[in-house]
Amino acid sequence: MSNCATLRTDLPRGVHVWLLAALLVAVAEAPGFAQTASSAMPVVLDRAVAVVNRHVILGSDLDDEIRLSILDPNHAPQQELTRQQALEQLISRTLIEQQIRQEDMPSIEPSTEDVDARLHEIRTELPVCARQDCASDAGWKAFLVAHELTAERVQAYLRYRLEILRFIEQRFRQGIQISQQQIEVYYHDTLLPQYRRGETIPPLDQVGPRIQEILLQQQVNALFDNWLTNLRQQGGVEVLDPELAAEPAPQPVPAPKPTMSPSGPERRNP
Predict the structure, then answer these.
(1) Residue 169's closest CA among 100, 263, 92, 69?
(2) Which residues are CB-neighbours of 176 under 8 A, at least 6 positions away?
(3) Is the pLDDT of residue 99 over 80?
(4) Domain boundary among 9, 24, 46
(5) The overall pTM is greater than 0.70
């Protein structure tokens, strides 16, 4: 029997603390424990740091989130995600995933082909990956080892990122209308000032569809942010680790956020 024990289940509040205590007592009272404690390997217990509607977030989950942040194009590789930032992202993601299960939306589940396509983008286009030759099998394996990741864990990570993005698009995009006046205002007030004197400015009718997509996505993001804020206020979120309970800086939620460049909109990868 291994000396390592991991609690990984949904529990009512307070029950996980009792189970940890009971487990410690059981180990301490096991036959021969007192005689071998000094020479045996230390008992490793994963620690619960937060509970979101009975779903336990463990310390190992934070470590996992920090390691996976290397795959997020919106996160600077030279700035490691803090444990508090990782917790905020996990709380938001847990609330979204719980809502997805509650609303039963099988249509948003990505296919294997979709996940493979996103993995290909990561391996060939992500700057930190390109520098380490992730496009080759040997380079990709070395990258995974260097960042303490596995191919299976990366696949699962990309799958739920895609699922969340599809949920956001399906739930909040429908019914939003962008007027021609809004497109013209963006063109004159936001796009044109990006061009320097003498540069060729694309006509409105050429970039209008791209501007419409940007404005549409901005409204989707605003609706989603408000929804998530309300969901968190209504949900049972309890941070158990005092060091992580301080008020954090707002963290971005994985959502597609296109920006407009002179060559057209750029959609950030989720």
Answers:
(1) 100
(2) 216, 219, 220
(3) yes
(4) 46
(5) no
